[in-house]
Amino acid sequence: MIINRQFIKETLWSSLAVTLVMLSIFLVVRLVGFLRDAADGDVPVESILILLLLKLVTYIDVILPLMMFVAVLMVLNRWSRDNEMAVISASGIGLTNFLKPIVILVLIIGGLAAAFSFYISPLSVRYAEEIEEEFKTRSDITGIVPGVFMETRSGNGVYFVEELNQKTEIYDNVFAYSTTGQGADGVVVAQEAFQRTDARTHDQFLVLKNGTRYEGVPGEKEYKIVEFETYAIRIELGIPPAPSIPVKGYKTKNLIKSDDPRLKTELVWRVSKPLVVPVLMLFAVALSKVDVRRNRLPNMLTAFFIYFSYTNLASFAVALMKKGTVQTSWLLWMIHGLFFLAAVYMFYRSSRNKPFFPRLFQPKPKTDLSLQPS
After folding, report:
1. Any domain includes 308
2. How high is the pLDDT of residue 342?
3. Which residues neighbour 65 within 8 Å (Cβ) at sequence distance 6 or greater?
């Protein structure tokens, strides 16, 4: 049917626009956080983009249901505003005829949400955790920002690099200050430096070239001055430990095989993410039918209230399961079931042009006595 094809087409295009807006907001918020970490020296500036993309992929399975929910509301509300829904209803096509395209959209978006929830999002979490762990275990020089004085993580030193050559990975005009436990201070200045890893021990060294080292106790006259051509500072010992992967980064097959309550909770949460899609789609279709003579704002507010109530209650149930307050997943499935029944009820009432909440007491019609025969 032409209407069904047009509905699917407009919904997908609207969902794409909504997704771009939501992702832009997400990227800006996360970018500010990563730039702050880079300024603190926790992550290299050149690695912000890959971390940003990995974090984005992690939340796609949560963004997809909201994206489609808003897209369906936008399309059908625009049709109601332009009186297209009135023409469609006058042609004998009701809301039940939209179930077929809704099923197609649910299969598309639900399938994508399931793919991200079960495989792609956990994979991105593992990669992001490995990268962040590598950044944490790297030397202090790795996270350096040229032109900024940086404090070492141990708090007993400061370093400064004037410039970094991206092609040769050579630091120009290096300054390093460190203090020992015996009260002596050491200052090293060098024209250039680079990193080197020992092939046998895997220890990492910062190799300084053509510089001077000053060492002594503050307040005393005697200082040791050493000029060098090559000076190596060990900056990391051995192979870093394997990163600790969070539960949300575990493979789905490992969650299925495990009897750990925490892993079972994560599995239930991954299963519930795609189940949100058909329920929200029913709500969207039921709430999108608007009387052109009335304000559309109440329906939109109701739609977003339902979405946030649904998702927050589901997240709350999962949090109770993680804390051990609720031993099984019955509360989460009960929430899904109640919202599904509410969506079916609202769709049924809306498809028959009935209010969602009928009046319990209908006023009796007044009779005009003047028209009755005497």
Report:
1. yes
2. 92
3. 109, 113, 273, 276, 277, 280
Q: Nearest CA to 356 among 302, 308, 312, 309?
A: 302
Task: Determine the Cα angle at 157 with ends 154 and 160, to 5°.
Answer: 125
pLDDT 10s digits, 284-331: 888 876 555 555 667 778 888 888 899 889 888 888 888 877 777 888
Tell me, yes or no, whether 8 and 121 share the same domain. Answer: yes
Query: Tens digit of pLDDT for each residue in 61-83?
Result: 888 888 888 888 888 877 777 77
For residue 81, the enclosing domain spans: 2-136+244-351
| Residue-by-residue DSSP string for 59-82 | THHHHHHHHHHHHHHHHHHHHHHT
Q: Are residues 252 and 333 in the same domain?
A: yes
Q: Of 130-134, 195-199, 278-282, 346-350, where does mean pLDDT reach its minimum?
A: 130-134
Domain membership of residue 362 (yes or no) is no
113 with 152, same domain: the answer is: no
Q: Are 279 and 340 in contact (CB under 8 A)?
A: yes
pTM value > 0.85: no
Of 298, 302, 258, 266, the residue nearest 283 (C-alpha): 302
Q: Do 68 and 12 contact (CB within 8 A), yes or no? A: no
> What does DSSP assign to residue 116?
I
Q: Are residues 119 and 10 in the same domain?
A: yes
Both tokens assigned to 271: 């299963």
Q: Which of 55, 59, 61, 57 is nearest to 271 (CA)?
A: 61
